[in-house]
Specification:
Elements: H1 4-23, H2 27-52, H3 58-88, H4 103-106, H5 118-136
Length: about 140
């Protein structure tokens, strides 16, 4: 087997993934593009392992570790995307910059602060959080 065939395929996969990371706005599509890039690296690792006829199969072992790390990355990434989607209603990557809280957003006006009474604090806590979310939006 020639080394050029899997290498060209890996370059095409990697370039497709790179384009997806740079051009897409949807967070799920960005995660899928990162997976394409990792699969291109895995293809190169296995192809070079076969081409070099490594007795220990180091390329294939490293590929297994990369697949495990990619699975963990996609699980954590999807959890973050779902949390952002629940809070914001969109998984647009450009709008993720708005999730950072600034000092001005943390300081609530006097009319939104609850009284010193603890029962009033417990009763108005959900309303206060909703008003804070409106203030930061």
């Amino acid at each position: 087997m020639h080394l050029a065939y899997p290498s060209v395929l890996a370059v095409l996969l990697f370039c497709t993934g790179l384009y997806g990371v740079l051009a897409r706005r949807n967070a799920i599509l960005v995660l899928m593009s990162v997976e394409l890039m990792l699969n291109a690296v895995n293809l190169n690792l296995v192809a070079f392992d076969v081409w070099l006829r490594d007795a220990l199969h180091g390329g294939q072992a490293l590929t297994l570790f990369t697949i495990a790390i990619a699975a963990a990355e996609i699980g954590i990434g999807l959890a973050i995307v779902l949390a952002v989607y629940r809070n914001r209603g969109s998984s647009d990557v450009d709008r993720l910059r708005d999730t950072a809280e600034t000092d001005a957003a943390e300081a609530l006006p006097d009319e939104w602060e609850a009284d010193d009474d603890t029962t009033a604090d417990q009763a108005t806590a959900p309303a206060g959080k909703a008003k804070k979310a409106e203030a930061t939006a």
